[in-house]
UniProtKB/TrEMBL annotation:
GO biological process: purine nucleoside catabolic process
Gene3D superfamilies: Ribonucleoside hydrolase-like
GO cellular component terms, semicolon-separated: cytosol
Record organism: Candidatus Aphodousia faecigallinarum
Limits of the Inosine/uridine-preferring nucleoside hydrolase domain: 6-303
Record protein name field: Nucleoside hydrolase
Highest taxon, organism lineage: Bacteria
Keywords noted in UniProt: Glycosidase, Hydrolase
InterPro entries: I/U_nuclsd_hydro_CS (IPR015910), Inosine/uridine_hydrolase_dom (IPR001910), IUNH (IPR023186), Ribo_hydro-like (IPR036452)
PANTHER family xref list: INOSINE-URIDINE PREFERRING NUCLEOSIDE HYDROLASE, URIDINE NUCLEOSIDASE
Pfam families documented for this protein: IU_nuc_hydro
């Protein structure tokens, strides 16, 4: 099987860490670049986390570039320290890594990578706020036609988490999200409606804890602290691991059912800013370029993650 080439734009973060481990440990994924954006924690902290995860997961040769430290138009993002801690990965142990960040900004790395690779071979996987992706599309509009697709973790078609109808990644920079969704590249929105099905239950954590590899040991730390923080902050008995769902879709789209539907981002409403307005009233028009994830094959999803950390 030909490897699927991906650029992962992230803000690690516990669930971003799971996504990176899944991508690194799956033989059908080739990570071309890791770019970072302020979100779960500040840009400096999430970039340090990305470098250290890359070292653990043997992705040290992959380009890592820092991107936007704040949204396009709004004030500095409010980080999710209540979930991810002051470091972004509190309660975990990672190797130290040289702070070897690419001198280019993340948007430039995204552009350069897409323009370098053959057309329709690179999938963009944004799993944080969409600032870098919007900047890249404005910096070089030709990438919109060259990208294979954009598979993003964000949004929700009938639920939010930081607001009644707004999800964290979209709400952090709704103007950037508006730009990304209005471009005509194929988009799969892996939102909360799907990711709330990806619960790290007791049986999953026990299976992972029995695996004797460095990445599995780190993943056990991630899921343990993530569970504690999510229970305290959100009241969930087990945490949903949002971000690896997007990677899982790229690896094997049959794991996630999707439905074509028009999606637009609200960025002006007093109570609805950050809402991903999804029209599910009737079949999508033939030219619809957006789809939303609806159902997860949970056991197959976790088997992907378990096999990935066994391989590392």
């Amino acid at each position: 099987m030909e490897k699927r080439k991906v650029i992962i734009d992230c803000d690690p973060g516990y669930d971003d860490a799971v996504a990176l481990l899944l991508a690194a440990g799956n033989p059908n994924i080739e990570v071309l670049a890791i770019t970072t954006v302020a979100g779960n924690q500040t840009l400096e902290k999430v970039t340090r986390n990305a470098l250290r995860i890359a070292k653990l997961a043997r992705l040290e040769e992959v380009t890592v570039a820092a991107g936007a430290a704040r949204p396009l138009l709004r004030d500095q993002v409010v980080v999710a320290a209540n979930i991810h801690g002051e470091s972004g990965l509190d309660g975990t142990t990672l190797p130290e890594a040289e702070y070897r960040v690419d001198p280019r900004c993340a948007a430039q790395v995204i552009v350069d990578t897409i323009m370098r690779e053959p057309e329709k071979t690179v999938t963009l996987v944004p799993i944080g706020p969409l600032t870098n992706i919007a900047l890249a599309a404005r910096l070089e509009p030709r990438i919109v036609d060259r990208v294979k697709e954009v598979v993003l973790m964000g949004g929700g078609y009938h639920i939010g988490n930081v607001k009644p109808m707004a999800e964290f990644n979209i709400e952090n920079d709704p103007e950037a999200a508006y730009i990304v969704f209005e471009e005509k590249w194929p988009i799969v929105m892996v939102g909360l409606d799907l990711t709330y099905q990806a619960l790290a239950t007791k049986d999953v954590k026990e299976k992972i804890a029995r695996i004797d590899t460095p990445c599995a040991q780190f993943l056990t730390q991630v899921l343990t602290r993530f569970s504690e923080n999510y229970k305290r902050s959100k009241g969930f008995d087990e945490p949903p691991v949002h971000d690896p769902c997007a990677i899982a879709y790229v690896i094997d789209p049959s794991i996630i059912q999707v439905r074509k539907a028009p999606v637009h981002v609200e960025y002006r409403g007093q109570f609805t800013s950050g809402m991903t307005v999804t029209d599910l009233r009737k079949p999508a028009p033939s030219d619809c370029h957006t789809a939303v994830a609806t159902h997860l094959a949970r056991e197959r999803f976790w088997n992907l993650i378990i096999e990935a950390v066994k391989n590392q």
